[in-house]
């Protein structure tokens, strides 16, 4: 899946990062999020999907220097991932883009 600069920029803004030096780390987190969702059975075909964007933000916040709140973000991400996995819209060939 191709990750455009706008998604990385959006995640960096959500993480309140101004330096472009962290963009590769954020891209790595985005890739890990997509892979984690895939393991749970969530097929992402549209990076612009609002629930995917929220899941990516929560995943990044859980894994990028938000130590005091990381468990809160991790729990929120897990709940959203579970909801997406249970939804037929996010299964391969489902209703979002398939």
What does this structure look like?
The protein is 59% helix and 0% strand. It has 98 residues and is mostly helical. The protein starts with a helix and ends in a 12-residue tail after the last helix. It contains four helices and no strands.
Strand content: under 5%
Shape: globular
How large, in whole angstroms, is the Cα Rg? 13 Å
In total, how many beta strands?
0
**Average pLDDT across residues?**
88
Structural class: mainly alpha
**Ends apart, CA distance between termini:** 15 Å
Please estimate the helix content.
55-70%
Order of helices and strands: HHHH
Number of helices: 4
So what's the oligomer here?
Answer: single chain
Main sheet properties? none
Low-confidence stretches: none
């Amino acid at each position: 899946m191709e990750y455009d600069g706008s998604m990385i920029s959006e995640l960096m803004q959500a993480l309140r990062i101004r330096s472009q030096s962290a963009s590769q780390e954020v891209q790595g987190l985005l890739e890990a999020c997509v892979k984690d969702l895939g393991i749970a059975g969530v097929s992402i075909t549209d990076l612009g999907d609002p629930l995917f964007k929220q899941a990516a933000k929560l995943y990044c916040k859980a894994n990028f220097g938000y130590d005091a709140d990381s468990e809160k973000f991790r729990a929120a991400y897990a709940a959203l991932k579970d909801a997406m996995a249970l939804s037929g819209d996010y299964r391969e060939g489902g209703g979002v883009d398939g």
